[in-house]
Design brief:
The complex is a heterodimer of chains A (340) and B (500).
Chain A (H helix, E strand, L loop, with lengths): L17 H11 L1 H17 L6 H26 L7 H17 L4 H24 L5 H20 L4 E2 L5 H7 L2 E2 L2 E2 H19 L1 H11 L1 H6 L4 H27 L1 E2 L7 H11 L11 H20 L4 H19 L3 H10 L2
Antiparallel strand pairs in A: 1-4, 2-3
Helix pairs in contact in A: 2-13, 3-8, 3-9, 3-11, 3-12, 3-13, 4-5, 4-6, 4-11, 5-6, 5-11, 7-11, 8-9, 9-11, 12-13, 12-14, 13-14
Chain B lengths: L11 E10 L2 E11 L4 E5 L6 H8 L10 E4 L2 E3 L4 H7 L1 E4 L11 H5 L13 H13 L16 H14 L4 E5 L7 H16 L3 E5 L3 H7 L2 E6 L2 E7 L5 H9 L18 E10 L3 E9 L3 E5 L6 H8 L7 E6 L2 E2 L5 H7 L1 E4 L3 H5 L6 H5 L11 H14 L16 H15 L3 E5 L7 H16 L3 E5 L3 H7 L2 E6 L2 E7 L5 H8 L5
Parallel strand pairs in B: 3-8, 3-9, 6-7, 7-8, 13-18, 13-19, 16-17, 17-18
Antiparallel strand pairs in B: 1-2, 1-4, 4-5, 9-10, 11-12, 11-14, 14-15, 19-20
The chains are: A mainly alpha (340), B alpha/beta (500).
Chain lengths: 340, 500
């Protein structure tokens, strides 16, 4: 190495301590922090019941399923991709899980098979966007339709109910452990794992690298096809976990359980500051985005706003969050006005 | 625009055009005149300031206040591309400004499409396009998409478009560089048409025979300064070359090395890629810089990409450290100890929206957990050793200057511990100061035993920094020149195929 012993001087970084790392995290997520604070002020004035323990746990419970899916979605969006198939994977895996419990194969096997199925769909998505060079939007749109169709075929379009006394199912659905609902515990574990992988594993760095430039990553020796297939697998895995939780909550596998989960998870990731262009963002922001969306929904419920208006509010929040996160907004407004 | 006065002022006159980037003068005191129907050849080596001059004339960048542009004798404020448009100055760059998926007709009339009335009468419009091209003695399928046309045809469409927009002064930036024989003739015929119509043409070319057959006058730039100007009929090609290269011919720097005895780090045998590379053989020793020269399209970039596993090969083998390395992907290349600094830094070498630190470690993380503290420390060491100027390690590298960006790319390969570096135009878009630093770094790496394959279109850089020079022509290596033999003249004569 040439002359690396010279004393170094770079502008910033006192940032070795945990405190300054937190400061950095706060700077990176200032928009969503502000929004979260607003979401704490409004209920303090108009809906103090928001702060009851029972209600906060409700918020967390609502956030958990979307949150698990959104963590996987974060990986995909960081590579500048998108996964539209998560809702269908959630429904399909939830159905398979219900069928397997009904067939009495044992809870662990049911869980493993359901998760494996989610990974399988993810691998198919990954192969589509790499080997077949299909746009992520199109590829996952196709698997969304296919997975959804397969679910309807298997179930004949009707919910599959089952009965079990399993403690695991109860915990994953409506039970509590250590004072927290089971789904919330799963969400926390998934989010921690996701954040850890993105930050501390080389794989996580490659995810950012692919988002920063696919060809540059390939020419840096990153096995881009492998990384992308794994990324879509992770998204599929997260969706399948969410599917298992959904089924455990209802004691029913429902072929249309996916609902708005795909839109909600993408919204949470984007609100959390992860760029759809890839390369910037992360799980911390996504968690904040999920919590914010759940808080808004809960608060609007408490204030007696109709579910229809809630959809409108959600859309407005997405636009606001992205607007404030965008840099150079003033210049862009002028530029676009002149180009009108 | 007819002017009846006896002493008609020149169509365009430039006085004292200059440009300084952060203290470094890249253009200084350039002045010339051009009349209607005159063809001015703008010549100079790469980095002489031609592109800067073109950018100033096309309004892309402003001249220093000392400079002045007069159109028909009247001072003209040329600050923006719109100003240039008003003055009737149109630049045809090497990269095209056409819409590839629109038809020739749509491209020709794009700016006036909305004034054509509704509905658009396409039949009439196509006929107008044919008419327009016919006036210039060209015949092209006007209904077809531009993307299916050859490069020459696309340039012709672009020139026709400019003419239709009443261009009075047309700047052609190396239009013939990527063309073959008959296409060149068609393009030159087009330029003569322009001349006949009274358009003033500023024509950039490296090919002297073209210039002598075409131009009326010439302007030679060297190191950002105007060194000669006059009528083509009063000069010779020898004189032009002398003016371009100058007295200070680049000569090898004398860094003592005994590459002759050091071990071979890279050996390429019979490397072929159909239609691109033909039976390439060469070797690279530890501590050696081997330059690869050649014209655009000679296969230099394709060669390093093939070695690096970025493109598949049809035949041949690659040995690293004497052992056959089956490099089928860039990943294998990196694992074998190769590093590539690609030609297109923006999309292939750099992760523009990632931080400098993320960039530096992208090629080296392989196993285990990332140690951020250690990485920060090492990143800071690279920043100071390579004199990378950046506000903080978390700065997105897209915001850095070209030179600093390239140093970040180099740091990535230093960190990866590459033993063979393939540098493809490492100094393109890099300021003069950083250039020197990059080459100093390369020499330092060689002292540490790294072997370097250096591609550059700037011959002085090749001559100055290489221990040996390989010259490529049409996908094959046509000459291997030792240090003493590798002069700019020899290299050029092999590169253009004049000598074999």
């Amino acid at each position: 190495m040439t002359g690396l012993s010279e004393t170094s001087r770079v502008g910033d970084e006192a940032s070795e301590s945990i405190g300054s790392a937190l400061m950095q995290a706060a700077r990176d997520h200032k928009v969503i922090l502000v929004l979260l604070v607003i979401m704490l002020v409004i209920p303090a004035i108009w809906a103090p019941e928001f702060f009851s323990v029972q209600n906060l746990i409700n918020v967390a419970r609502q956030a958990a399923i979307t949150g698990v899916v959104a963590v996987g979605m974060t990986f995909v969006i960081l590579t500048s991709g998108i996964d539209l198939s998560v809702g269908s994977i959630l429904a399909l895996c939830g159905l398979i899980f219900a069928l397997l419990i009904k067939a009495d194969v044992g809870i662990p096997i049911a869980i493993i098979v359901a998760m494996g199925l989610g990974v399988l769909v993810g691998i198919i998505n990954g192969i589509g966007v790499t080997f077949l060079a299909i746009q992520p939007f199109i590829m996952t749109l196709a698997t969304m339709a296919i997975a959804s169709g397969v679910g309807l075929l298997i179930s004949n379009g009707t919910p599959i109910a089952f009965d079990t006394t399993s403690g695991i199912v109860a915990l994953l659905g409506n039970g509590n452990a250590a004072g927290l609902p089971g789904p919330v515990i799963v969400f926390i574990l998934v989010a921690l794992a996701g954040a850890f992988v993105l930050r501390y594993l080389p794989f996580g760095r490659f995810v950012y690298g692919i988002g920063g430039g696919l060809e540059a990553a390939r020419l840096s020796g990153v096995r881009t096809a492998r990384v992308l297939i794994m990324v879509y697998s992770i998204s599929g895995l997260c969706a399948s976990i969410a599917g298992i939780i959904t089924t455990c909550r209802l004691f029913v596998g429902h072929p249309t359980a996916g609902g708005f989960i795909m839109l909600d998870s993408i919204a949470a990731v984007v609100i959390g500051g992860t760029s759809l262009m890839g390369g910037r963002g992360g799980v911390i922001g996504t968690v904040a985005g999920v919590v914010l969306l759940a808080m808004v929904a809960n608060l609007l419920n408490l204030l007696g706003v109709s579910p229809f208006n809630q959809q409108v509010a959600k859309g407005a929040i997405i636009i606001l969050a992205v607007l404030f996160t965008a840099q150079g907004m003033r210049e862009r407004l002028i530029e676009q006005w002149n180009a009108l | 625009m007819a002017d009846d006065s006896a002493t008609e002022p020149p169509l365009l006159e430039a006085r004292g055009l200059a440009k300084t980037y952060s203290g470094i003068t890249v253009l200084k005191g350039v002045g010339f005149t051009i009349q209607k129907g005159e063809i001015l050849a703008l010549v100079g080596e790469n980095g002489a300031g031609k592109s800067t001059l073109i950018k100033i004339l096309s309004g892309a960048i402003p001249s220093e206040p000392s400079g002045q542009v007069l159109i028909e004798g009247r001072p003209f404020a040329l600050h923006t591309p719109e100003d240039a448009d008003h003055a009737g100055i149109v630049t045809v760059y090497q990269e095209f400004n056409l819409f590839p998926d629109l038809s020739i007709t749509e491209n020709l009339f794009f700016t006036e499409l909305r004034e054509l009335g509704w509905p658009i009468s396409w039949g009439a419009l196509h006929r107008r396009a044919e008419q327009l091209l016919h006036e210039m003695d060209v015949r092209l399928p006007v209904r077809r998409r531009v993307s299916v046309l050859s490069v020459a045809d696309r340039q012709i469409v672009e020139i026709a478009k400019a003419l239709h927009r009443r261009a009075r002064i047309m700047i052609l930036d190396e239009p013939t560089a990527v063309l073959g024989g008959s296409d060149v003739d068609r393009l030159l015929a087009m330029v003569r048409q322009l001349k006949a119509r009274g358009v003033a043409v500023i024509f950039v070319s490296h090919r002297l025979n073209e210039i002598f057959g075409l131009a009326d006058s010439y302007l030679v730039l060297r190191d950002g300064q105007q060194v000669a100007t006059g009528l083509i009929s009063e000069t010779t090609s020898d004189e032009l070359v002398r003016n371009m290269v100058g007295r200070a011919l680049a000569k090898p720097t004398d860094h003592a090395r005994d590459a002759g005895v050091s071990a071979e780090v890279l050996r390429v045998e019979g490397l072929s890629r159909k239609g691109v590379l033909h039976n390439i053989n060469f070797s690279l020793r530890s501590g050696e810089v081997v330059g690869v020269a050649g014209l655009r399209g000679a296969g230099r970039t394709e060669l390093v990409r093939a070695i690096f596993g970025a493109d598949p090969i049809d035949a041949g083998r690659i040995l690293v450290d004497g052992r056959e390395a089956r490099i089928t992907s860039p990943h294998k290349a990196v694992a074998t100890g190769l590093g590539l600094v690609p030609e297109d830094r923006g999309t292939q070498g750099l992760f523009k929206n990632l931080s400098a630190q993320q960039n530096i470690f992208m090629a080296s993380v392989t196993a285990g957990l990332i140690d951020y503290r250690g990485e920060r420390r090492r990143a800071r060491e690279y920043v100071s050793a390579l004199q990378i100027r950046l506000p903080r390690l978390s700065t997105l590298v897209g915001r850095l200057s070209g030179g600093n960006q390239q140093k970040v790319v180099l740091a990535k390969w230093l960190e990866a511990g590459a033993r063979v570096l393939l540098l493809d135009e490492p100094t393109r878009g890099v300021d003069v100061g950083s250039k020197a630093q990059i080459y100093a770094l390369v020499r330092g790496l060689c002292r540490d035993g790294v072997g370097v394959l250096l591609i550059s279109s700037e011959l002085p850089e090749i001559v100055e920094n290489s221990d040996r020079v390989l010259v490529m022509h049409r996908g094959a290596i046509v000459a291997e020149l030792a240090r003493g033999q590798a002069t700019e003249e020899t290299i050029i004569s092999y590169a253009v195929g004049a000598r074999t």
